[in-house]
Write a sequence for this structure.
């Protein structure tokens, strides 16, 4: 008589019920391997609590549980060293239920083998393992290793039992899921059969009622048959008439089919013509794309032939309330092709009352001639100025970096050239709003060729070598120390200003709002040259990104429009009060950045391996807009007043040196000396006694030359 086989599901449930009371017991594990790596003194302190916990483990407790018997039968070895610790595995949820069994099974006495130089463990007294002396660390370590091995063997046995229980539980779950699926299938089939039976009963009742109704109608229909026979005779006569009409319609149908065939042939020819036109259109689109790329290449070549470094000169008109200059003070000789050619030269006459002839008559005025790429007399309007630089703005849209500077003394019209005049007069708009209007217009035209452009604007100022965000609002206004120039990412050549606002723009109204906000935040101060003088460099940057999704083409370039800070000479005999010291520090910072700009332009024109971009925050920020294939244009703005002739001459000389850098000089060292000396002269910086900053600045300049 074979014993009845027990269901795996019942067996698993019994095992789970057997383990349920043991779930709250805490596990008791030996010392970890990290605590065995300590020194002798630390080992004694760490082992003392363990020895207290293992004093009562000398006796064994026999249990009737089969797993406890398996644990008691685990072999124990003596005198072995600690084995490497196995990698920890995540235990199942019910692994903690075995901990009480481990607590009730106390290991037997472990007597480690005596090693040379080790004191043998004292004999056991009363079934308990005696405590080793504190100096016998090796004996204690051997005892702990033996206990650790015993616990590991017990753990392996419990893991095996745990795996068996998991397998049984898994099989029981599978059987339960299969039986549940079969039960659901049978229930669904039973429901469907019942529904079909009910539907059949309803249909049977409906058919019975239908039969009765049809029997009643049959009698009625028999009477109608006779009437229909008579009607049939009449209809036969009509059919013969309709047959004649049908013949006529068939003849007309044949005629229509012939016309339809001709129309289908015409449609096929029209489709072929449309396909040919589509092919021609695709060919023309390819040709148009090729012409656009060729236009960009030729446009770039034309700009390079004109010079990647160009200098324009603009003379502002005389303002109301200013003295009119004497005739011949400023002259604009005609171009090479006559009066119709735009002027490129400027002559400035300077008379020195301190000089005289032997006869006592005043000396003749000294004439200074300058030549630039373009000269704008006082009568030139903003539209004329922008028309000359619109080709450079187009280069930025084509993917070439462009940088435009406005340089000159204080009150010479730099800000008017870049931003325009007050009042919102369209004729007085500066280069920034006109350039963005041009970019938006051309980008809209190129949209028809598959190009899409996005524009992101930023506006910062550099005041005393500190970068400040001109678009900051609220509590962030004036917090220039938080803005730093950093790389956009590891390995990226793009520079960005931390904590500065980068605003996407798509229309002229957004640009006007940004310019108004920046005009309010810019640092200005009253000087002798201008009641409202800019004492910082303002940098408006527009990041242009274009993409042609159909051809997988992309282009990106920055357009930088820079309004450089103005400067004027300081009186050497002026008493340096708190305000004058601040103006002196501002002037020194401005002139230092301008001198670095001259050195950078010189290094780029001479194609030197090292370009000192990092010597100034201005040149470091504009690094990607100056080197490589970038296009640079400098506006030198001068005043038409005779009282500013000294500052005007310094500005014109500096601009002439920059223009001469466009064609590399055979004597780069002498050119470097000229630029540095000119910057020092143009700055008008006087070095009073005790001013170590200005002297150190001069030493740094000469250090660059050496």
């Amino acid at each position: 008589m074979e014993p009845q086989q027990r269901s795996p599901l019942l067996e698993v449930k019994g095992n789970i019920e057997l383990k349920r009371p043991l779930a709250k017991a805490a596990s008791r594990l030996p010392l970890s391997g990290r605590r065995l790596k300590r020194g002798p003194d630390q080992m004694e302190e760490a082992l003392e609590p363990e020895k207290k916990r293992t004093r009562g483990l000398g006796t064994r407790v026999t249990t009737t549980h089969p797993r406890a018997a398996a644990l008691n039968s685990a072999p124990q070895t003596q005198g072995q060293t600690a084995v490497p610790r196995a990698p920890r595995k995540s235990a199942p949820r019910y692994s903690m239920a075995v901990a009480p069994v481990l607590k009730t099974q106390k290991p037997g006495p472990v007597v480690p083998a005596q090693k040379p130089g080790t004191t043998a463990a004292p004999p056991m007294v009363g079934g308990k393992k005696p405590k080793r002396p504190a100096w016998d660390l090796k004996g204690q370590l051997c005892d702990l290793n033996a206990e650790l091995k015993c616990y590991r063997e017990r753990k392996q046995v419990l893991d095996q039992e745990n795996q068996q229980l998991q397998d049984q539980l898994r099989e029981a779950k599978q059987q339960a899921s299969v039986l549940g699926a079969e039960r659901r299938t049978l229930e669904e089939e039973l429901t469907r059969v019942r529904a079909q039976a009910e539907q059949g009963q309803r249909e049977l009742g409906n058919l019975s009622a239908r039969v009765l109704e049809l029997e009643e109608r049959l009698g009625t229909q028999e009477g109608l048959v006779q009437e229909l026979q008579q009607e049939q005779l009449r209809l036969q006569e009509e059919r013969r008439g309709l047959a004649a009409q049908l013949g006529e319609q068939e003849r007309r149908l044949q005629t229509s089919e012939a016309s339809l065939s001709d129309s289908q042939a015409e449609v096929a020819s029209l489709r072929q013509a449309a396909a040919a036109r589509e092919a021609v259109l695709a060919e023309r689109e390819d040709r148009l794309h090729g012409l656009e790329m060729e236009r960009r290449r030729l446009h770039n070549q034309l700009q390079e032939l004109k010079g990647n470094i160009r200098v324009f000169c603009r003379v502002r008109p005389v303002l109301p309330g200013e003295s009119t200059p004497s005739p011949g003070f400023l002259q604009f000789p005609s171009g090479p092709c006559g009066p119709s050619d735009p002027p490129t030269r400027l002559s400035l006459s300077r008379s020195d009352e301190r000089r005289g002839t032997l006869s006592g008559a005043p000396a003749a005025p000294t004439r200074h001639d300058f030549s630039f790429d373009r000269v704008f007399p006082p009568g030139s309007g903003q539209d004329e100025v922008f028309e000359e630089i619109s080709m450079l703005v187009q280069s930025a849209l084509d993917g070439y970096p462009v940088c435009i500077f406005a340089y000159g003394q204080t009150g010479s019209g730099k800000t008017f050239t870049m931003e325009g005049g007050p009042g919102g007069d369209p004729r007085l708009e500066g280069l920034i709003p006109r350039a963005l209007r041009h970019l938006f217009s051309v980008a809209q035209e190129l949209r028809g060729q598959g190009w899409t452009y996005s524009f992101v604007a930023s506006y910062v100022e550099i005041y005393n070598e500190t970068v400040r965000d001109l678009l900051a609002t609220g509590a962030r206004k004036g917090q220039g120390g938080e803005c730093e120039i950093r790389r956009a990412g590891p390995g990226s050549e793009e520079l960005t200003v931390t904590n500065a606002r980068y605003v996407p723009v798509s229309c002229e109204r957004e640009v006007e709002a940004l310019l108004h906000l920046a005009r309010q935040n810019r640092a200005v101060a009253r000087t002798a040259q201008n009641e409202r003088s800019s004492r910082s460099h303002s940098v408006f940057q527009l990041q242009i990104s274009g993409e042609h999704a159909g051809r997988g083409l992309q282009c990106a370039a920055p357009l930088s429009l820079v309004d450089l800070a103005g400067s004027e000479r300081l009186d050497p005999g002026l008493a340096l009060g708190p305000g004058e010291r601040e103006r002196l520090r501002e002037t020194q910072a401005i002139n230092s950045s301008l001198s670095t700009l001259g050195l950078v332009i010189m290094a780029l024109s001479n194609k030197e391996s090292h370009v000192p971009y990092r010597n100034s925050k201005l040149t470091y920020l504009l690094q990607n807009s100056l080197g490589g294939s970038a296009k640079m244009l400098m506006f030198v703005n001068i005043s038409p007043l005779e009282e500013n002739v000294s500052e005007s001459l310094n500005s014109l000389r500096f601009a002439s040196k920059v223009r001469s850098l466009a064609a590399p000089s055979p004597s780069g060292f002498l050119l470097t000396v000229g630029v540095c000396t000119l910057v020092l002269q143009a700055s008008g910086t006087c070095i009073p006694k005790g001013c170590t900053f200005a002297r150190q600045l001069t030493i740094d300049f000469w250090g660059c030359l050496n």
Observations:
- Residues 161-267 form one domain.
- The mean pLDDT is 75.
